[in-house]
Amino acid sequence: MASEQQGATSTERELKDYSVSEMYDLNQKLLNESIPDVPPVSELAPMSVLRVEYERGSQLFLSQIDWLTGQGYTHFRRAKGDGDCFYRSVAFAYIERLLSTPQSERDSTVTTSLSLLSATKENIIKAGTQAIVVDDAFEEFENLVKNIIIPDSEQRTLTSKRLLEIFQAKPSGNNYAVEDASIPPNIVFYLRLVTRAQLKNNAETYDGFLYDVDTGMPLDPESFCNKYVDPIGVEADHMQMTALCRELKLNLDVAYLDGRRADTVDFVQFREGPESEKPLTLLYRPGHYDILVKEEKR
């Protein structure tokens, strides 16, 4: 028993010394081994399910998961770890929050959201993207938000159940409409364009903060976007998160489950929306983002 405890302590001490890239590789290996076939967005799962993933690993991770649970974060939604999980998680959580708006406020909230989306399209074109490139993706996003209050051709309005069906739809081989499968990737593409627009249209704001991760050399917004924003499958980091939140006027909290502290979990906060608006919350594990859900107190 003593040798096992000593081994565990050694593992945890070494874990703290891991580089960012080593933590990324370790986490991706864990994800691939424990959940090899994850849909783009999964159904809500209790935090106990997440805890099981780490039972054979560091006690520090288990302590952090327990801490989150103690703070009222009772559930999470997995996002497929394909490099687009940040943008996809934000998109799903953003629309799901609109759906959760009280009925008496829903029309005005959705109208405000549609006005904001329209402004982001103008900013994308201002940043140099041709309208023909952005039109289809914008229309998919806009129509999905409109469907919260305006019935579609089948007289359906969007529900949480249908939202999940859309984000899980495949091009073929399931019971969902084939056309649904184009919506999530188009929205992810649109959010990348939104991020690019904010960085390019406000270049002076980001001067000195954009750099090449591999070389450490500074990059101009165009070069940064070409390498770290535009390519599908390249995950977002702090600057991309900042830019997207500013453009969409979002409040966002990102909980860092990194196995480095046992007594707490660090949250990185982005406050670009109204003060009264509750933040969307994501769970970050090195190289990966999921949606974190806090129990509403009644």
Description:
The protein has 11 helices and 6 strands. It has 298 residues and is of the alpha+beta class. The protein folds into 2 domains: 1-78 and 250-298, Peptidase C65 Otubain, subdomain 1 (Phosphorylase Kinase, domain 1, 2-Layer Sandwich); 86-246, 3 helical TM bundles of succinate and fumarate reductases (Up-down Bundle). The chain has a 6-stranded mixed sheet with strand order 1-2-6-5-3-4. Helix 5 (85-99) runs antiparallel to helix 8 (160-168), helix 6 (103-126) runs antiparallel to helix 7 and helix 9 (183-201) crosses helix 11 (238-248). The protein starts with a helix and ends with a strand. Residues 1-16 and 18-25 have low confidence and may be disordered. Keywords: Hydrolase, Protease, Thiol protease, Ubl conjugation pathway. Residues 74-295 form the OTU domain.
Pick out its properties.
single chain; 298 residues; alpha+beta; Phosphorylase Kinase, domain 1; 3 helical TM bundles of succinate and fumarate reductases; 6-stranded mixed beta sheet; 51% helix; globular; disordered N terminus; cysteine-type deubiquitinase activity; Peptidase_C65_otubain_sub2; Papain-like_cys_pep_sf; hydrolase
